Amino acid sequence: MEFRNYKNDKQIVKETQKLYYEAFPKKERLPFFFLKHKASQQVADLIGVYDNSQFVGMLYCVYHKDIVFVFYLAVAAEGRGKGYGSKILAKLRRRLEGKSIVLSIEDVNEESENNVQRKKRKKFYLCNGFREAGYKTKENGVIYEFLCCGKQVEVEEYWELLKNYLGSFLYNIYGKKIVSRR
After folding, report:
1. Which of helix, strand or coil describes residue 110?
2. Which of 40, 50, 105, 127 has a CA that sits 20 to 30 A from residue 86's CA?
3. Cα-Cα-Cα-Cα dihedral of 91, 69, 125, 54, to 10°?
4. Cβ burial, residue 24 (10 Å; 0-12/13-18/19+)
5. Which residues lie below 8 Å from residue 88, measured CB to CB, with a gap of 6+?
């Protein structure tokens, strides 16, 4: 399995962009040009994941100090259920040894239409070395639970990472709120 950075490769851009729009609902996406722009500034990476030259997934990671936020991770439809998600996370953990990795997932909620999917997603991450971080945020009406791997990432560290990534102006507009802390 190989991680390929998008820079100067139109095929990687094409494949990651297509999967990005297929895998994530509109309200959970940032404009793709913004992702590319931030990756060009070296505060993030837009990565195509390949298995023997076959595109199997994408990652978008944001970096700040010793923390990596997995903003987006998706496996191509034809590769789902074949272990690629676990392989991607294992490779990512090896690549980022010594760093803390944090990500957010839709909160498990019995009243949500996709609660079965949410439970499976959480179980997947817990089985792949992540644990509950102990805080949640609410964005565009959706509650997200945070999971981390490596040293504990506190919510204040996440806010700092996000502010560094977005810049003060966009960070203030984006306006995330903590809705609970365990």
Report:
1. coil
2. 40
3. -40
4. middle
5. 1, 49, 57, 59, 73, 75
